[in-house]
UniProtKB/TrEMBL annotation:
It comes from the Eukaryota. It is found in: Cell membrane. The chain crosses the membrane at residues 16-36, 95-116, 128-144, 156-177. One of its GO terms (molecular function) is delayed rectifier potassium channel activity. It is a multi-pass membrane protein. The lineage of its organism: Eukaryota, Metazoa, Ecdysozoa, Nematoda, Chromadorea. This is Ion transport domain-containing protein. GO terms for biological process: action potential. Its main location: membrane. It comes from Pristionchus fissidentatus.
Length: 184
């Protein structure tokens, strides 16, 4: 990977254009942590013992996962991937609206649930942000068995979250299918 990146820079017609490409930036971010860790080890700095840069190195290691994004380049060779990408592009407004309504519902239902369940013993809903995860998995119909409301009002709020989540996710489906039919 490292040698290939250097060779690609050397043979690029425009190095500036090459370095500004999104996928090439992702490649560079994926390569830098390796050399950073190796360089620190060569000069005798134990990375595990440095608490100051430990968090920064964790962030850099997470950025290495961005290499997976490179698989999206295979989409240009697949007509199905191209159709899917064009469908998503033509449905961007509807998907954005769905995300906005879903996030509003998450805030609404997690706030309601927190205020109903906060005084219960051993509740997992210790704050509104702690209830966000519950609201997200409830509204997207994933479900989360270990984190359920205890009280009857909490269960009613959960029922409302489930029903509104199904509606929010189901309504844009017809528009997306219509856009898919237009693209293909």
């Amino acid at each position: 990977m490292h040698v290939r990146y250097i060779l690609r820079i050397c043979v690029a017609p425009s190095r500036i254009h090459f370095l500004c490409g999104i996928m090439n930036i992702v490649d560079l971010i994926a390569i830098v942590p390796f050399y950073l860790e190796m360089g620190l080890a060569l000069i005798g700095i134990d990375i595990a013992s440095l608490s100051d840069i430990k968090g920064a190195l964790l962030v850099v290691r997470v950025l290495r996962v961005l290499r997976v994004v490179r698989i999206l380049k295979l989409g240009r060779y697949s007509s199905g991937m191209r159709t899917f990408a064009l469908t998503l592009k033509s449905s961007a407004r509807q998907l954005g609206m769905m995300g906005m309504v879903l996030s509003t519902g998450v805030v609404f239902f997690s706030t309601l649930l927190y205020f109903v369940e906060k005084d219960e013993k051993d509740t997992p809903f210790t704050s509104i942000p702690a209830a966000f995860w519950w609201a997200i998995v409830t509204m997207t119909t994933v479900g989360y068995g270990d984190c359920v409301p205890v009280t009857i009002p909490g269960k009613l709020i959960a029922s409302g979250a489930i029903i509104s989540g199904v509606l929010v996710l189901a309504l844009p489906i017809t528009i997306i299918v219509d856009n898919f039919m237009k693209v293909s």
